[in-house]
Amino acid sequence: MIKKLTIFAGLLMTSFLVGGCQSNEKRLDDTPFFYGTWDAGFFDGYEPSTVTFDENTITTKQSIDGRQVELPRTYEIVSQKSDGSIEMIFTGRPNPVTSTLIRNTDNTLTWNVFGQTKTMKRVEPK
């Protein structure tokens, strides 16, 4: 009886150790949904642009006077709500700007920034 309990306890401890090691691994699925390049359409009403989200930088590419111009901004994530929306704040000058990202059911992204609401489609996979 004691031998069976010892074997059971050993197996139980081994399963906890193995399970604990596996849960600490970073999976590719842990990458946030909004990372990658998105087609923002006509931003500011007249210029087509793309938006790329990285770990802490948002880069907007706009066509200005026929040239592609990159406009990088840094941001910090302020909060993430239970509905999947993310509130972030741009940390650059002149004033911090609050922005919201909302993941839609059709795998598009709605971005509320500078008083505009943009629904964007993914250009490149994350």
TrEMBL record:
Residues 1-20 form the signal peptide. The keyword Signal applies. Keywords: Signal. It holds the Pfam family DUF3255. InterPro entries: Calycin, DUF3255. Gene3D superfamilies: 2.40.128.20. It comes from the Bacteria. This is DUF3255 family protein. It comes from Metabacillus arenae. The lineage of its organism: Bacteria, Bacillati, Bacillota, Bacilli, Bacillales.
